[in-house]
Design goal:
heterodimer; A: 7-stranded mixed beta sheet; 4-stranded antiparallel beta sheet; 0% helix; B: 111 residues; mainly beta; 6-stranded mixed beta sheet; 5-stranded antiparallel beta sheet; 53% strand
């Protein structure tokens, strides 16, 4: 199993540009999520999905869109990039069994917005 | 009070030392607790779950104190390879953010 994969690993955008961060998992996990990690801020949830066709907002959803058309894929779209979105983005997936979640993280995408 | 609080460190300890981290959480209804490890510029990975009765995995011991709302992680016989940031993670019983991550405690094991 490849686990959770993310592309690209690094990206530089200009303010106002849009782009999609890709995330895929091959573990048949129902739950997928996107986090951003900033220095001194810890991991913050952007959006999450409990299954294909179902998405919901996390703590910091503004400026981002998601969709979940298949179990495997959960892309994150930046609508109009801003310098405040410079961050490391992690995608994660997990089963939802018994209310206990072990999240598997992808390697991250390091995004810089200039 | 923040939902999950950790001392950011860094904790600088010599090889072979025993080191302990604490983490406090504010929601008494939280049900599940975890320690994750994150190496520099890498993704977080689950280190261990924390059970009510306490649990041990090799050199690592996790404890939960529900009355005082804190969890702890003890590392015995520290290795250079233990150098990392340790994240305390707590589940919310409801709401749209099921997992809450602490900001992490940085450990540096020195030769």
């Amino acid at each position: 199993n490849a686990g959770v994969t993310q592309t690209p690993k690094f990206q530089v955008l200009k303010t106002g540009q849009s782009m999609t961060l890709q995330c895929a998992q091959d573990m048949n996990h129902e739950y997928m999520s996107w986090y951003r990690q900033d220095p001194g801020m810890g991991l913050r949830l952007i959006h999450y999905s409990v299954g294909a066709g179902i998405t919901d907002q996390g703590e910091v959803p503004n400026g981002y869109n998601v969709s979940r058309s298949t179990t495997e894929d959960f892309p994150l779209r930046l609508l109009s990039a801003a310098p405040s979105q410079t961050s490391v983005y992690f995608c994660a997936s997990s089963y939802r069994t018994g209310g206990i979640y072990e999240q598997y993280f992808g390697p991250g995408t390091r995004l810089t917005v200039t | 009070r923040k939902e999950v609080e950790q001392d950011p460190g860094p904790f600088n300890v010599p090889e072979g030392a025993t080191v302990a981290f604490n983490c406090t959480y504010s929601n008494s209804a939280s049900q599940s607790f975890f320690w994750y490890r994150q190496d520099c510029r890498k993704e977080p990975k689950l280190l261990m779950s924390v059970y009510s009765s306490g649990n041990e995995d090799g050199r690592f011991t996790a404890q939960l104190n529900r009355a005082s709302q804190y969890i702890s992680l003890l590392i015995r016989d520290s290795k250079l390879s233990d150098s990392a940031t340790y994240l305390c993670v707590v589940t919310r019983p409801s709401g749209n953010t099921p997992l809450v991550f602490g900001k992490g405690t940085r450990l540096s094991v020195i030769a």
